[in-house]
Backbone:
Protein backbone atom coordinates (compact mmCIF):
# COMPACT_ATOMS: atom_id res chain seq x y z
CA UNK A 1 0.00 0.00 0.00
CA UNK A 2 3.04 2.26 0.42
CA UNK A 3 6.43 1.79 -1.16
CA UNK A 4 9.61 2.47 0.81
CA UNK A 5 9.86 6.12 -0.21
CA UNK A 6 6.20 6.73 0.66
CA UNK A 7 6.60 5.04 4.02
CA UNK A 8 9.60 7.23 4.79
CA UNK A 9 7.67 10.37 3.80
CA UNK A 10 4.64 9.49 5.93
CA UNK A 11 6.82 8.51 8.89
CA UNK A 12 8.73 11.78 8.72
CA UNK A 13 5.51 13.83 8.68
CA UNK A 14 4.06 11.71 11.51
CA UNK A 15 7.10 12.35 13.73
CA UNK A 16 8.11 15.88 12.74
CA UNK A 17 4.72 17.53 12.01
CA UNK A 18 1.90 15.59 13.71
CA UNK A 19 0.31 12.14 13.76
CA UNK A 20 -2.83 13.64 12.19
CA UNK A 21 -0.93 15.07 9.23
CA UNK A 22 0.98 11.82 8.81
CA UNK A 23 -2.24 9.81 8.70
CA UNK A 24 -3.88 12.28 6.31
CA UNK A 25 -0.99 12.08 3.83
CA UNK A 26 -0.76 8.31 4.31
CA UNK A 27 -4.49 7.90 3.75
CA UNK A 28 -4.32 9.74 0.45
CA UNK A 29 -1.40 7.62 -0.73
CA UNK A 30 -3.11 4.38 0.36
CA UNK A 31 -6.30 5.37 -1.46
CA UNK A 32 -4.38 6.15 -4.65
CA UNK A 33 -2.42 2.90 -4.47
CA UNK A 34 -5.59 0.93 -3.71
CA UNK A 35 -7.10 2.20 -6.95
CA UNK A 36 -4.01 1.09 -8.86
CA UNK A 37 -4.20 -2.41 -7.35
CA UNK A 38 -7.94 -2.83 -7.89
CA UNK A 39 -7.88 -1.68 -11.50
CA UNK A 40 -4.62 -3.54 -12.23
CA UNK A 41 -3.47 -6.84 -10.64
CA UNK A 42 -6.85 -7.49 -9.00
CA UNK A 43 -8.99 -6.73 -12.03
CA UNK A 44 -9.43 -10.41 -12.91
CA UNK A 45 -10.52 -11.55 -9.42
CA UNK A 46 -14.07 -12.88 -9.16
CA UNK A 47 -16.54 -12.42 -6.35
CA UNK A 48 -15.41 -15.59 -4.56
CA UNK A 49 -11.84 -14.31 -4.04
CA UNK A 50 -10.87 -14.20 -0.35
CA UNK A 51 -7.69 -12.15 0.18
CA UNK A 52 -5.59 -12.22 3.37
CA UNK A 53 -3.79 -8.95 4.05
CA UNK A 54 -1.02 -8.19 6.51
CA UNK A 55 1.14 -5.27 7.63
CA UNK A 56 4.52 -5.25 9.30
CA UNK A 57 2.75 -5.17 12.67
CA UNK A 58 0.30 -2.29 13.20
CA UNK A 59 -2.43 -3.15 10.69
CA UNK A 60 -3.39 0.40 9.64
CA UNK A 61 -2.58 0.03 5.95
CA UNK A 62 -3.84 -3.54 5.64
CA UNK A 63 -6.95 -2.63 7.63
CA UNK A 64 -7.70 0.32 5.35
CA UNK A 65 -7.31 -1.77 2.21
CA UNK A 66 -9.41 -4.59 3.71
CA UNK A 67 -12.25 -2.11 4.29
CA UNK A 68 -12.17 -1.04 0.63
CA UNK A 69 -12.06 -4.63 -0.63
CA UNK A 70 -14.90 -5.64 1.67
CA UNK A 71 -17.06 -2.80 0.35
CA UNK A 72 -16.52 -4.14 -3.17
CA UNK A 73 -17.79 -7.53 -1.99
CA UNK A 74 -14.66 -9.58 -1.42
CA UNK A 75 -14.26 -11.41 1.90
CA UNK A 76 -11.03 -9.75 3.02
CA UNK A 77 -9.22 -10.79 6.22
CA UNK A 78 -6.34 -9.11 8.06
CA UNK A 79 -3.64 -10.98 9.94
CA UNK A 80 -3.64 -9.58 13.47
CA UNK A 81 -0.16 -8.69 14.64
CA UNK A 82 1.13 -8.69 11.08
CA UNK A 83 4.34 -10.17 9.74
CA UNK A 84 6.27 -9.80 13.00
CA UNK A 85 3.80 -11.99 14.91
CA UNK A 86 3.73 -14.55 12.11
CA UNK A 87 7.53 -14.62 11.97
CA UNK A 88 7.78 -15.15 15.73
CA UNK A 89 5.43 -18.14 15.53
CA UNK A 90 7.39 -19.63 12.62
CA UNK A 91 10.61 -19.37 14.63
CA UNK A 92 8.92 -20.95 17.65
CA UNK A 93 8.11 -23.99 15.50
CA UNK A 94 11.34 -24.46 13.55
CA UNK A 95 13.91 -23.17 16.03
CA UNK A 96 12.42 -24.09 19.40
CA UNK A 97 9.88 -26.89 19.01
CA UNK A 98 10.67 -29.05 15.99
CA UNK A 99 8.21 -31.61 14.58
CA UNK A 100 5.27 -32.67 16.76
CA UNK A 101 5.29 -36.20 15.30
CA UNK A 102 7.71 -39.02 16.14
CA UNK A 103 10.55 -38.81 13.61
CA UNK A 104 12.29 -41.59 11.69
CA UNK A 105 15.44 -40.55 9.83
CA UNK A 106 16.10 -42.21 6.45
CA UNK A 107 19.87 -42.54 6.24
CA UNK A 108 22.36 -43.96 3.77
CA UNK A 109 25.52 -43.19 1.81
CA UNK A 110 25.50 -40.59 -0.95
CA UNK A 111 23.58 -41.80 -3.99
CA UNK A 112 21.32 -44.25 -2.11
CA UNK A 113 18.14 -42.75 -3.64
CA UNK A 114 16.90 -41.52 -0.27
CA UNK A 115 14.91 -38.66 -1.80
CA UNK A 116 13.23 -41.03 -4.28
CA UNK A 117 12.32 -43.43 -1.47
CA UNK A 118 10.96 -40.50 0.54
CA UNK A 119 8.69 -39.56 -2.38
CA UNK A 120 7.45 -43.14 -2.63
CA UNK A 121 6.68 -43.15 1.08
CA UNK A 122 4.60 -39.99 0.61
CA UNK A 123 2.73 -41.68 -2.25
CA UNK A 124 1.97 -44.57 0.11
CA UNK A 125 0.36 -42.15 2.59
CA UNK A 126 3.28 -41.89 5.01
CA UNK A 127 3.97 -38.46 6.49
CA UNK A 128 7.26 -37.05 5.21
CA UNK A 129 9.14 -33.78 5.33
CA UNK A 130 11.35 -33.29 2.26
CA UNK A 131 13.97 -30.82 3.48
CA UNK A 132 15.86 -30.87 0.18
CA UNK A 133 12.64 -30.14 -1.70
CA UNK A 134 11.88 -27.20 0.60
CA UNK A 135 15.46 -25.94 0.15
CA UNK A 136 15.51 -26.63 -3.64
CA UNK A 137 18.89 -28.33 -3.32
CA UNK A 138 20.09 -31.94 -3.45
CA UNK A 139 22.28 -31.47 -0.39
CA UNK A 140 25.68 -32.15 -1.99
CA UNK A 141 28.43 -30.09 -3.59
CA UNK A 142 26.89 -30.85 -6.98
CA UNK A 143 23.35 -30.37 -5.69
CA UNK A 144 22.36 -26.87 -6.89
CA UNK A 145 19.05 -26.89 -8.79
CA UNK A 146 17.36 -24.64 -11.33
CA UNK A 147 15.76 -21.58 -9.76
CA UNK A 148 18.27 -21.37 -6.93
CA UNK A 149 17.54 -21.69 -3.23
CA UNK A 150 14.88 -19.71 -1.39
CA UNK A 151 15.95 -17.14 1.20
CA UNK A 152 16.47 -18.61 4.67
CA UNK A 153 13.27 -17.02 6.01
CA UNK A 154 11.17 -18.42 3.18
CA UNK A 155 12.64 -21.89 3.78
CA UNK A 156 11.74 -21.58 7.47
CA UNK A 157 8.18 -20.58 6.60
CA UNK A 158 7.84 -23.54 4.22
CA UNK A 159 9.19 -25.85 6.91
CA UNK A 160 6.80 -24.44 9.54
CA UNK A 161 3.84 -25.00 7.21
CA UNK A 162 4.99 -28.56 6.53
CA UNK A 163 5.20 -29.16 10.28
CA UNK A 164 1.75 -27.61 10.81
CA UNK A 165 0.24 -30.18 8.45
CA UNK A 166 1.58 -33.12 10.48
CA UNK A 167 -0.73 -35.38 12.44
CA UNK A 168 1.01 -35.63 15.86
CA UNK A 169 -0.35 -39.16 16.32
CA UNK A 170 1.47 -40.45 13.22
CA UNK A 171 5.22 -40.69 12.56
CA UNK A 172 7.06 -38.60 9.99
CA UNK A 173 10.04 -39.70 7.89
CA UNK A 174 12.81 -37.18 7.17
CA UNK A 175 15.93 -37.72 5.09
CA UNK A 176 19.25 -37.49 6.93
CA UNK A 177 20.93 -34.15 6.29
CA UNK A 178 23.90 -32.19 7.52
CA UNK A 179 23.26 -28.94 9.35
CA UNK A 180 23.34 -27.10 6.01
CA UNK A 181 21.55 -27.87 2.75
CA UNK A 182 23.49 -25.86 0.21
CA UNK A 183 23.31 -22.33 1.60
CA UNK A 184 20.32 -23.07 3.86
CA UNK A 185 20.84 -23.66 7.58
CA UNK A 186 18.61 -26.36 9.08
CA UNK A 187 16.81 -24.62 12.00
CA UNK A 188 17.74 -25.79 15.48
CA UNK A 189 14.40 -27.40 16.34
CA UNK A 190 14.49 -29.53 13.21
CA UNK A 191 18.18 -30.29 13.66
CA UNK A 192 17.69 -31.47 17.25
CA UNK A 193 14.89 -33.76 16.06
CA UNK A 194 17.16 -35.28 13.38
CA UNK A 195 19.95 -35.86 15.89
CA UNK A 196 17.66 -37.46 18.47
CA UNK A 197 15.58 -39.65 16.14
CA UNK A 198 16.03 -43.35 15.34
CA UNK A 199 17.45 -44.16 11.94
CA UNK A 200 16.98 -46.73 9.23
CA UNK A 201 19.84 -47.00 6.76
CA UNK A 202 19.83 -47.88 3.07
CA UNK A 203 22.83 -50.10 2.28
CA UNK A 204 23.63 -50.07 -1.45
CA UNK A 205 26.84 -51.09 -3.32
CA UNK A 206 28.91 -48.18 -4.58
CA UNK A 207 28.58 -49.29 -8.21
CA UNK A 208 24.77 -49.21 -8.00
CA UNK A 209 24.90 -45.82 -6.33
CA UNK A 210 27.23 -44.46 -9.00
CA UNK A 211 24.93 -45.67 -11.78
CA UNK A 212 21.88 -44.15 -10.10
CA UNK A 213 23.62 -40.84 -9.40
CA UNK A 214 24.76 -40.48 -13.01
CA UNK A 215 21.12 -40.56 -14.10
CA UNK A 216 19.81 -38.50 -11.20
CA UNK A 217 22.32 -35.70 -11.85
CA UNK A 218 21.89 -35.66 -15.62
CA UNK A 219 21.04 -31.95 -15.55
CA UNK A 220 24.32 -31.19 -13.80
CA UNK A 221 26.38 -33.31 -16.17
CA UNK A 222 25.16 -31.30 -19.15
CA UNK A 223 27.44 -28.47 -17.94
CA UNK A 224 30.97 -29.86 -17.81
CA UNK A 225 32.36 -26.52 -16.76
CA UNK A 226 30.14 -26.56 -13.68
CA UNK A 227 31.35 -30.08 -12.80
CA UNK A 228 34.99 -29.05 -13.17
CA UNK A 229 34.47 -25.96 -11.02
CA UNK A 230 32.91 -28.10 -8.32
CA UNK A 231 35.80 -30.56 -8.48
CA UNK A 232 38.18 -27.62 -8.06
CA UNK A 233 36.48 -26.82 -4.74
CA UNK A 234 37.60 -30.24 -3.49
CA UNK A 235 41.28 -29.50 -4.15
CA UNK A 236 42.15 -28.53 -0.53
CA UNK A 237 40.89 -31.95 0.67
CA UNK A 238 42.59 -34.30 -1.82
CA UNK A 239 45.99 -34.93 -3.47
CA UNK A 240 46.61 -32.97 -6.64
CA UNK A 241 46.94 -36.16 -8.70
CA UNK A 242 43.47 -37.27 -7.65
CA UNK A 243 41.93 -33.90 -8.52
CA UNK A 244 43.65 -34.01 -11.93
CA UNK A 245 42.27 -37.51 -12.50
CA UNK A 246 38.75 -36.38 -11.64
CA UNK A 247 39.07 -33.40 -13.97
CA UNK A 248 40.17 -35.72 -16.76
CA UNK A 249 37.13 -37.95 -16.20
CA UNK A 250 34.86 -34.91 -16.36
CA UNK A 251 36.46 -33.69 -19.58
CA UNK A 252 36.06 -37.17 -21.09
CA UNK A 253 32.45 -37.49 -19.91
CA UNK A 254 33.28 -40.63 -17.89
CA UNK A 255 30.49 -39.81 -15.47
CA UNK A 256 29.86 -43.18 -13.87
CA UNK A 257 33.56 -43.74 -13.20
CA UNK A 258 33.81 -40.23 -11.77
CA UNK A 259 30.79 -40.79 -9.53
CA UNK A 260 32.25 -44.08 -8.28
CA UNK A 261 35.59 -42.47 -7.38
CA UNK A 262 33.93 -39.47 -5.72
CA UNK A 263 31.92 -41.83 -3.55
CA UNK A 264 34.87 -44.06 -2.71
CA UNK A 265 37.41 -41.32 -1.98
CA UNK A 266 35.32 -38.33 -0.88
CA UNK A 267 31.74 -39.00 0.20
CA UNK A 268 31.88 -42.46 1.77
CA UNK A 269 34.82 -41.75 4.14
CA UNK A 270 33.01 -38.66 5.40
CA UNK A 271 29.79 -40.56 5.81
CA UNK A 272 31.60 -43.18 7.91
CA UNK A 273 32.38 -40.63 10.62
CA UNK A 274 28.77 -39.44 10.48
CA UNK A 275 27.55 -43.04 10.77
CA UNK A 276 29.78 -43.70 13.79
CA UNK A 277 28.30 -40.66 15.52
CA UNK A 278 24.74 -41.97 15.13
CA UNK A 279 25.35 -45.73 15.21
CA UNK A 280 23.47 -46.13 18.50
CA UNK A 281 20.36 -44.62 16.86
CA UNK A 282 20.13 -47.17 14.03
CA UNK A 283 17.18 -49.54 14.36
CA UNK A 284 17.37 -51.16 10.96
CA UNK A 285 19.20 -51.65 7.66
CA UNK A 286 17.67 -52.07 4.22
CA UNK A 287 20.06 -53.77 1.81
CA UNK A 288 19.49 -53.17 -1.92
CA UNK A 289 21.63 -54.43 -4.79
CA UNK A 290 20.15 -51.95 -7.29
CA UNK A 291 18.22 -48.69 -7.29
CA UNK A 292 15.69 -49.04 -10.09
CA UNK A 293 12.02 -48.18 -9.49
CA UNK A 294 11.01 -51.63 -8.16
CA UNK A 295 13.93 -51.50 -5.70
CA UNK A 296 12.90 -48.01 -4.56
CA UNK A 297 9.34 -49.26 -4.00
CA UNK A 298 10.66 -52.25 -2.07
CA UNK A 299 12.73 -49.92 0.11
CA UNK A 300 9.69 -47.73 0.81
CA UNK A 301 7.67 -50.77 1.89
CA UNK A 302 10.43 -51.88 4.24
CA UNK A 303 10.74 -48.39 5.75
CA UNK A 304 6.99 -48.46 6.32
CA UNK A 305 7.44 -51.78 8.14
CA UNK A 306 10.07 -50.17 10.39
CA UNK A 307 7.51 -47.52 11.37
CA UNK A 308 5.34 -50.37 12.71
CA UNK A 309 8.17 -52.02 14.64
CA UNK A 310 8.51 -52.16 18.42
CA UNK A 311 11.99 -50.60 18.16
CA UNK A 312 10.57 -47.48 16.51
CA UNK A 313 7.60 -47.30 18.87
CA UNK A 314 9.96 -47.16 21.84
CA UNK A 315 11.86 -44.25 20.31
CA UNK A 316 8.63 -42.62 19.16
CA UNK A 317 7.03 -42.74 22.60
CA UNK A 318 10.00 -40.98 24.17
CA UNK A 319 10.07 -38.34 21.41
CA UNK A 320 6.31 -37.80 21.73
CA UNK A 321 6.63 -37.14 25.45
CA UNK A 322 9.31 -34.52 24.77
CA UNK A 323 7.20 -32.82 22.08
CA UNK A 324 4.13 -32.77 24.31
CA UNK A 325 6.14 -31.14 27.09
CA UNK A 326 7.29 -28.39 24.71
CA UNK A 327 3.79 -27.78 23.37
CA UNK A 328 2.37 -27.33 26.87
CA UNK A 329 5.22 -25.14 28.10
CA UNK A 330 4.35 -21.50 28.89
CA UNK A 331 4.29 -19.40 25.72
CA UNK A 332 4.30 -22.38 23.36
CA UNK A 333 2.81 -21.70 19.95
CA UNK A 334 2.78 -22.77 16.32
CA UNK A 335 1.18 -21.90 12.99
CA UNK A 336 -1.41 -24.68 12.98
CA UNK A 337 -4.04 -23.04 15.17
CA UNK A 338 -3.02 -23.30 18.81
CA UNK A 339 -1.55 -19.81 19.09
CA UNK A 340 -1.68 -18.15 15.70
CA UNK A 341 -2.30 -14.57 14.68
CA UNK A 342 -6.02 -14.24 14.08
CA UNK A 343 -7.43 -13.33 10.67
CA UNK A 344 -10.15 -10.80 11.37
Residues:
Amino acid sequence: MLDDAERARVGTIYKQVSPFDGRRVGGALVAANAAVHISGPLADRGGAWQPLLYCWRGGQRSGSFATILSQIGWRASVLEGGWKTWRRLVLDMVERDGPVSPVLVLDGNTGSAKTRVLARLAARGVQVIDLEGLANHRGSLFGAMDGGQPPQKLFETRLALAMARLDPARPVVVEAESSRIGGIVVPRGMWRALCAAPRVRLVVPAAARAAFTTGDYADVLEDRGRVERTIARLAPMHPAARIDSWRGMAQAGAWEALALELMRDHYDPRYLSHRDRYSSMEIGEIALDRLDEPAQEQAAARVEAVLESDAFRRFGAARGDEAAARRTAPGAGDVSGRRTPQAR
Summary: The CA atoms of residues 105 and 199 lie 5 Å apart. The first strand starts at residue 52 and ends at 53. Confidence is low (pLDDT under 50) at residues 336-341.
